[in-house]
Amino acid sequence: MIDVNALQKYSLFGGVSPEQIEKIKPLLETGHFEAGECPQVEGQPNDKIYFILSGEVDVIKQGVVIARLREGETFGEMELLDIMPSIATVRAATALDVVMISNRALYDISKLDLKTFSMMIMNLARDLSRRLRRMDELVCEETKGS
Amino acid sequence: MIDVNALQKYSLFGGVSPEQIEKIKPLLETGHFEAGECPQVEGQPNDKIYFILSGEVDVIKQGVVIARLREGETFGEMELLDIMPSIATVRAATALDVVMISNRALYDISKLDLKTFSMMIMNLARDLSRRLRRMDELVCEETKGS
Fold first, then answer.
1. B133–A81: do the CB atoms touch at under 8 Å?
2. Which tens digit of pLDDT belongs to each residue from A48-105?
3. Are B69 and B52 in contact (CB under 8 A)?
4. 3-state class of A90 per DSSP?
5. Which of A50, A81, B101, B137 has the smallest number of Cβ neighbours within 10 A?
């Protein structure tokens, strides 16, 4: 059972009404992972975005944990859009419950409700833009520091 | 006069047909800058994406030229989506002709033709995703190097 109200707090659903989420709900999947399992492996294909409903994950790049994500956060946004391999491994640090939207489901959402689709993609693009901005600042600071 | 065929080569219009571009053309603006003029200034608001039709620009961050962009390339994508200040200054290195889409025009495109809008936003998100991926690789290599 996917809780529509729980999904509304994720930035990807910003501006999307509960009725709109209800409509696309049949296209969403739920998933459960035990601690230690990896929903996403660096270098391997992934075509899903994951919404963390409960539990925590470690984001691992080249063997190093670079971030920990929690309830209310998402991963897999970049892999959802392009067809490149995953940029990082994501490993469940605890038991993990997620809602997933696959690339195929996203396509189906665009056919079912173009308005909802375009809001989701707009939110996604804004998210990526914010991350790019942060990354950009980070690179600039490192360059100044060295 | 905006040449529809010229616009088709930009990644933002990937998959958008000449007929669709023709339809939204009244919402696009053209602009001309002389060498030395700055369409975009670091820290200042900007709400437009620019398509370089002819000429070249320097992308300048904290006084340092970090990139040169040419015909067929775009800038301002990030500022179009969020309401944050520009992350870099863009200065015309030669006489410069551009096509511009403002945030307001983008909104109007969504009202006029939601399908075209959603394709453009999807292309934009893919572009940002690719840039994020490159930036990510860059940061990783620098970290390994230091």
1. no
2. 999 999 999 999 998 999 999 999 999 998 888 877 889 899 999 999 999 999 999 9
3. yes
4. strand
5. B137
- pTM higher than 0.90: no
* Cα atoms in the 13 Å half-sphere on the side-chain side of A136: 18
Q: Is B121's CB within 8 Å of A125's CB?
A: yes
Mean pLDDT over A20-45 rounds to 95
Residues of A with CB under 8 A from a CB of B: 61-62, 77-78, 81-82, 84, 87, 110, 114-115, 117-118, 121-122, 124-126, 128-133, 135-136, 138-140, 142, 144, 146
Nearest residue, CB atoms, B125 vs list A110, A124, A135 = A124
Gap from A53 CA to chain B (nearest CA, Å)? 24
**Residue B6 in this model has a pLDDT that exceeds 70:** yes
> Helix (H, G, I), strand (E, B), or coil: what is residue A62?
coil
Write down the ipTM of this complex: 0.85
CA distances in angstroms from B129 to A88, A124, B67, B124, B125, listed in the order given: 14, 10, 19, 9, 6
Confidence band, pLDDT 50/70/90 cuts, at residue B2: confident
* Nearest neighbour of A118 by CB, restricted to B114, B131, B136: B114
From A24, A25, A31, A26, select the one nearest A50 (Cα to Cα): A31
Instruction: Count Cβ atoms within 10 A of the Cβ of residue A36 and give its class: 0-12 exposed, 13-18 middle, 19 or more buried.
Output: exposed
CB contact under 8 A, B132 and A130: no
Do residue A131 and residue B132 have CB atoms under 8 angstroms apart? Answer: yes
Q: Between the CA of residue B102 and those of A86, A122, B91, B142, what are the distances in Å?
A: 33, 15, 19, 36
**CATH class of this structure's domain B4-145:** mainly beta
